[in-house]
Design goal:
heterodimer; A: 208 residues; mainly alpha; B: 162 residues; mainly beta; Protocatechuate 3,4-Dioxygenase, subunit A; four-stranded antiparallel β-sheet; 1 helix; 25% strand; elongated
């Protein structure tokens, strides 16, 4: 990839990630929310944006971040995602404890609450698989399938969660972010072929 | 004109049919045709503060919360019933005491109270209403606005004597 193309690609990615945050920053609802609630909202939006980067990093599809560099950053982005979700949940808990308890116990009247909790559970599962990879001693193919499966649940549930919420995100930026999350994961899975096992997937990629 | 007499067989058959219908619950007494009580909604009681004061309106008003209160069974309108209302509005959070207020139903069982504009919170533009005064069973409602731009919301109660 040429330098110009890399700069263009990064510009597009940066714009895509920043758009939902900028749109939300202009929401009229913000003036009726206290800082903790605002922080929780933005942590949720940032989390959705990070979900776009995460599969691209894993698959080495980002300009200048292929291979090992991308995978190392993939781990740190994973940590950032966990932090974003932690701030999101803690901030909403402080804002309205009974609503958060309802969500976490799957007794909320809103479907998106359940999707959010499912996404959080799958994110923790993906993170535990990553952090305990050696200790778990799974076969590489099994581990990749499990981690990818968890990532699929995270993406699907997060998109459903975001799509059903009426909040500070602009509708257009929300559609763009959700489409990007689904698209990035699909492209990454197509490239990494987790069902084939790492060695074969690498060989096939090289041959193609 | 001659009327055919009821045969013994006909009499026995209709009697048996009536017994069967009653036994199967097909023929039911008049009271069961009545109005079923309103069930509390999920999340309806969230951020409830008991004993909200009776007010002319909550805060600056501008948004109308209204509805009806009837008795379960016969559907008779209930007057003088205290309905408590709260929501996340342009003037405060759900749990702020000044976001809460109460009103009474009129002779026709109607209630109407003005409050500040409701804004979406926790992902949905919604309000909260409660009947919690003892004479009837407690009911918590959580109606959702069709659009966040709506300037009114309504909810109906059918109360079951406690």
């Amino acid at each position: 990839m040429t330098r110009a193309r890399a700069i263009l690609a990064w510009g597009a990615i940066a714009a895509l990630l920043a758009w939902p945050l900028v749109a939300a920053a202009g929401s009229p609802y913000l003036q009726y929310r206290d800082p903790v609630y605002v922080a929780a909202s933005f942590a949720g939006i940032a989390g959705l944006s990070l979900l776009v980067l995460q599969p691209l990093l894993a698959a080495g599809l980002l300009p200048a971040l292929a291979g090992r560099t991308g995978r190392r950053l993939h781990r740190w982005t994973g940590v950032a995602l966990l932090l974003a979700v932690a701030v999101h949940v803690a901030g909403l808990w402080i804002t309205s404890p009974p609503d958060m308890v309802d969500a976490l116990t799957f007794t909320a009247p809103t479907a998106f609450s359940a999707f959010g909790v499912v996404a959080m559970g799958a994110l923790v599962a993906a993170a535990v698989l990553a952090a305990r990879r050696t200790a778990l001693g799974l076969r590489p193919r099994t581990w990749r399938l499990a981690h990818t499966g968890a990532a699929l649940v995270v993406a699907a549930a997060s998109v459903s969660h975001a799509a059903l919420i009426e909040g500070t995100m602009g509708p257009l930026s929300k559609i763009a972010a959700c489409t990007a999350v689904a698209g990035a994961l699909a492209v990454a899975i197509r490239r990494l072929r987790p069902w084939a096992g790492p060695a074969r997937a690498r060989r096939d990629r090289g041959a193609a | 004109m001659t009327r055919p007499p009821i045969t013994r067989r006909g009499f026995a058959a209709s009697g048996a049919a009536a017994l069967l219908a009653a036994g199967a619950g097909l023929a039911v007494p008049a009271r069961a045709q009545g109005l079923a009580p309103t069930a509390s909604m999920r999340g309806g009681a969230n951020n409830y503060l008991p004993g909200a004061p009776l007010v002319d309106r909550i805060g600056g008003g501008g948004f109308v919360m209204s509805g009806t209160v009837r008795r379960a069974g016969d559907g008779a309108p209930l007057s003088g019933i205290r309905i408590q209302v709260w929501a996340h509005t342009t003037e405060g959070r759900e749990r702020d005491p000044h976001s809460h207020g109460a009103t009474l139903t009129d002779a026709d069982g109607l209630f109407r109270i003005e409050m500040p504009q409701i804004v979406p919170v926790f992902g949905q533009p919604h309000g909260h209403l409660a009947y919690d005064s003892g004479a009837f069973q407690t009911v918590f409602l959580r109606p959702v606005m069709a659009s966040a731009r709506d300037t009114s919301l309504s909810a109906d109660f059918v109360l079951q004597p406690a």
